[in-house]
Design a protein that fits this description.
Elements lengths: L3 H15 L4 E6 L19 E8 L2 E7 L5 E7 L4 E6 L14 E7 L4 E6 L7 E5 L6 H4 L12 H10 L4 H6 L9 H11 L12 H22 L7 H8 L23 E4 L4 E4 L1 H4 L8 H4 L4
Antiparallel strand pairs: 1-6, 2-3, 3-4, 4-8, 5-7, 6-7, 9-10
Helix pairs in contact: 1-6, 3-6, 5-6
Catalytic activity: Hydrolysis of DNA containing ring-opened 7-methylguanine residues, releasing 2,6-diamino-4-hydroxy-5-(N-methyl)formamidopyrimidine
InterPro entries: FPG_cat, FPG_N, H2TH_FPG, Ribosomal_uS13-like_H2TH, Znf_DNA_glyclase/AP_lyase
Family: Belongs to the FPG family.
Length: 296
């Protein structure tokens, strides 16, 4: 799933290529992906793209329509969705069916993009709205972790609002927007903390360490993703991971010095997390969630 750094890079990528261009056609390939019916996607046709922005993991294409009313095409790529850019879109028509193509946006110079989703679990979500805040998942987003509003004090308040595992807090979009499974693993490794540490156990020093790790990991990832074509972002993300997705590989340790341990994994019903026992849990492997409370 693309997270804050990749979505920010996609917003930049699209902004550079679409700003000022006119939408000439919007084709829906998967009706299940379209979560709104009024305004219809056709209401975007004839409008000029003003900007592309990000709300957490959501992308937002702002279009000044021919009637003068701005509309927003907003979408969430979910776990298996992606954006495919074309300098010249294929001429073949979009036909709803079993294709991974969910939506196609064509611009006046022939360029445009497809939103696609692999697999059978269709979660990609597309909305056409007058205001992004009309999308409930956007209206309820938490603080942006790279914004001025995200401070050590604010993080401390979030940690102590209710007692939960810190991994879950970092991933909760209603608390902190834009962090998912991968970057929460990376942040906790950088902070040298167990993913199952309980949030109300955090004192000022641990809160500051988590804050610094969050800002550092995300800032570096945004810089690494910035300027890359959309087609390269997935591989760039994988290459940049220190522990996430690297089960069984040597832990990179700190300051270029490996710690001597390997990256371990905890599996769940539909996901997994990665961590280093030496760096994060006092050398004790996390067997599963039921055992984790012994290792906070």
């Amino acid at each position: 799933m693309p997270e804050l750094p990749e979505v920010e890079a996609l917003a930049q990528f699209l902004r550079e290529r679409t700003a000022g261009r006119v939408v000439t056609k919007v084709d829906v390939g998967a009706i299940s992906a379209l979560k709104t019916f009024r305004p219809a996607p056709d209401a975007l046709v004839g409008g000029a793209v003003v900007d592309v922005s990000r709300h957490g993991k959501w992308l937002d294409l702002l279009v000044a329509t021919p009637t003068g009313e701005p509309l927003h095409l907003v979408w969430h790529l979910a776990r298996a969705g992606w954006l495919r850019w074309y300098e010249q879109l294929p001429a073949t028509p979009v036909r709803p069916g079993k294709s991974p193509l969910a939506l196609r946006v064509r611009l006046d110079d022939g360029s445009g993009y497809d939103l696609t989703e692999a697999g059978t679990r269709k979660r990609l979500a597309v909305h056409v709205v007058e205001d992004p805040q009309d999308v409930p998942q956007i209206a309820t987003l938490g603080v942006e972790p790279l914004s001025d509003e995200f401070t050590p004090q604010r993080l401390g308040e979030l940690l102590h609002a209710r007692n939960q595992q810190v991994k879950g807090l970092l991933r909760d979009q209603g608390t902190i927007a834009g962090i998912g499974n991968a970057y929460s693993d990376e942040i906790l490794h950088a902070a040298r903390m167990s993913p199952f540490a309980m949030t109300r156990s955090f004192d000022d020093a641990r809160t500051a360490a988590l804050y610094d790790a969050t800002r550092e990991v995300l800032t570096e990832a945004v810089a690494a993703a910035s300027g890359r074509p959309a087609a390269e972002l997935k591989d760039a993300k994988r290459r940049g991971m220190r522990v996430h997705g690297r089960t069984g590989e040597p832990c990179p340790g700190w300051n270029g010095v490996p710690c001597g341990d390997t990256v371990h994994e905890v599996s769940f019903a539909d996901s997994s997390l990665q961590y280093c026992p030496t760096c994060q849990t006092g050398g004790k492997p996390l067997a599963d969630r039921r055992m984790s409370r012994l290792l906070r």
